[in-house]
Input
Amino acid sequence: MAKARTFFMARFQGATLALLRVMAGLMFMQHGVQKMFGWLGGWRGTPGATAPLFSQSGLAGVLEVFGGALIVLGLFTRPVAFVLSGMMAWAYFQAHAPDAFWPIVNRGELAALYCFVFFYFSARGGGPYSIDAVLERRRSAARLDFQR
Output
């Protein structure tokens, strides 16, 4: 029986997961710095404008900046990604879905995509090139040392 051939990219699973995680986190952070600091065009397209911190947009900005940074680092990936996924689902249904059913029509495709990318990270974790993986390797080594 012949051995099944695998696609050449299979050997890069860990690296591509890390690349997706880092880029998703960096792109997500851009939305937060608009709201929190008025950078990159500012809040609601007004250069220099910021969202009130104690508002729904202000809270979203905090989650986008700090949650995005944790995703980039791969630290607490699963719980952070779960929270961010929920936030993006909320954003989609609150801000986009009332306008039309289809995401391309209601301009909510980015919110929907972030929702599902973060939902994937909440199930998959940060991957081998993450701080979570380093911490898990250390915990495993400490358990082995303790068992001796």
